[in-house]
Amino acid sequence: MNAVRSDAETFDAIVVGAGLAGMLTALELRPRRVALVSYGSLGQWTSSAWAQGGIAAAVGDDDSPALHAADTVAAGAGLVERRVAARLAADAPHAIERVAALGVRFDREDAHYALGREGAHSRRRILRAGGDATGAELVRAIALAVHASADIVCYEDSRALDVVLDAGGAVAGLTLRVAGDVRTFSAPCVVLATGGLGGLYRFTTNPTSSRGAGIAIAARAGARLADLEFVQFHPTALDVAADPLPLVSEAVRGEGAVLVDARGSLVMAGVDAALDLAPRDVVARRVFALRQANERVYLDARHVAPDNFPERFPTVFDACMRYGIDPRHEPIPIVPAAHYHMGGVAVDLADRTNVPGLYACGEVAATGVHGANRLASNSLLESVVYPERIARDVAARTFARVVRPAATRAYAAPVPGSDAEWRSLRDAMYAGVGVERNEAGLSVAIERLNAIGDASPSDDVREAAVVGALVAHAALRRRESRGSHMRTDHPERSIAERHRSYSTLADARSA
Ligand code: SIN
């Protein structure tokens, strides 16, 4: 057992996760004294840093927040909270200016932001940086600002373990593993910004360390979870021997690339009126179905940016060339991969969870804005909009004085999961809880996840198995197909199921 050090540090707030949402929340909370807990160095191992296409905001002359909100609602397949979408779209232009003021260099054409197009957007409204390196530029600039801030104490290469609650059930601090020690810091407020769970799947565009740790931490503290069954698969991950898979941004289709089969036939013809720019769930299902029928699917970008593909899409170009594929001269092989989790820790309109003092922000939060299928490039957007709101809410509240908290349990020295354990767990998720689901497949996945978790000496594997089982149980309960959740045994959308879903930790083992 690791001894828990009792030299508790006291903070006004603790932010867990150093992707875009976490770092910006720490900045917005200033001048409060904030601990920022990061799994690697700031921005490392985060999906934020890998985001390509960009960040959606209605800043074009022909656009408006109302149109942006309407596209968000339409993509979300009947489950988007309209008020939340309206607020996100309305706050977007201001949030863009706020991060630009922090040093983010967005691409421009003349005096205006360069605006791209992505699936299910009715206007060109995707801002980008460095061509297709938007997330990397955001993370670069915001990490510099964090490092320059005297109010933020960074704990890099650290791992949050549990939220500590007081006798009344309110947040009193956080237990974490830092520099080999288990320590407990006190604070009346903890913000989880730990990202998603794509790493639970065999094919993913996320860092493999993204395994829903924030969901597990929140659930153990008694937080309500929402919409867990909705996992978005990106239709165009590069089909190569890599783990995680490099992403081929939807912005490439926004500039005219098309999906084709091995014979060069257009695969989206007759599937959706918006063809290759149909909502992401529609495109992912089509690609998945073709691959199930042993067809390979390609993205043909040979006519896109013919004079400057490497400059317009440097990240995509480099990734392709690394695997011997020249997108200027040959179609790019692609495969659907787990990309974004619409579900997560349920938050209300004030962005609070049901645990007093506990907030969630970014991908780990379930705000209701994405419904059953997130509109492309709304994820970086939520990561820049919500931090300011959370900081405002924290500033307006009076928290009870925190007495030095004690860790709630003893922690064994960490045991890493074996390659075989991770492979079985990730295969079980992709096969049973993936693009297509049905009752039998979900039940098999749950059994396998429980067995893997029960047999493992590793806390990480056990925790990942619980998170996977929570997603699978939520998917089992939703007996319809909606957005990213496709049940082959319930292929229709059901009016009776038109509601968000909620789970708690107990549901991981429900019958
Ligand atoms: C992409 O560039 O295709 C990803 C953008 C997103 O997931 O929002």
The termini sit apart by 33 Å
The number of distinct helices, counting runs of at least 4 residues, comes to 14
CATH topology term of the largest domain: FAD/NAD(P)-binding domain
Report strand %.
15-25%
Q: Give the total of domains.
A: 3
Structural class: alpha/beta
Walk across the major sheet and give the strand order. Answer: 9-3-2-13-20
The major pleated sheet works out as:
5 strands, parallel
- Assembly context of the chains: single chain
- The total strand number stands at 24
- CATH class identity of the largest domain: Alpha Beta
Ligand names: succinic acid
Poorly predicted parts = 1-7
Radius of gyration over all CA atoms, rounded: 22 Å
The CATH homologous superfamily of the largest domain is called: FAD/NAD(P)-binding domain
Descriptive overview:
With 511 residues, the chain is α/β, with parallel strands linked by helices. It has 3 domains: 5-196 and 342-396, FAD/NAD(P)-binding domain (3-Layer(bba) Sandwich), CATH 3.50.50.60; 234-337, Succinate dehydrogenase/fumarate reductase flavoprotein, catalytic domain (Flavocytochrome C3, Chain A, domain 1, Alpha-Beta Complex), CATH 3.90.700; 412-509, Fumarate reductase/succinate dehydrogenase flavoprotein-like, C-terminal domain (Methane Monooxygenase Hydroxylase, Chain G, domain 1), CATH 1.20.58. It has 14 helices and 24 strands. It has helices spanning 20-28, 47-50, 65-75, 82-101, 134-147, 213-220, 250-254, 280-292, 309-312, 314-322, 378-396, 419-432, 439-455, 459-477, and strands spanning 4-5, 13-16, 34-37, 55-56, 108-109, 112-113, 115-116, 126-127, 152-155, 159-165, 171-178, 181-186, 190-192, 225-226, 231-238, 258-261, 297-300, 332-341, 344-346, 358-360, 365-366, 436-437, 486-487, 502-503. Strands 9-3-2-13-20 form a 5-stranded parallel beta sheet, with helices on one face. A hairpin with a 2-residue loop joins strand 5 (108-109) and strand 6 (112-113). The chain starts with a strand and ends in an 8-residue tail after the last strand. The relative contact order is 0.17.
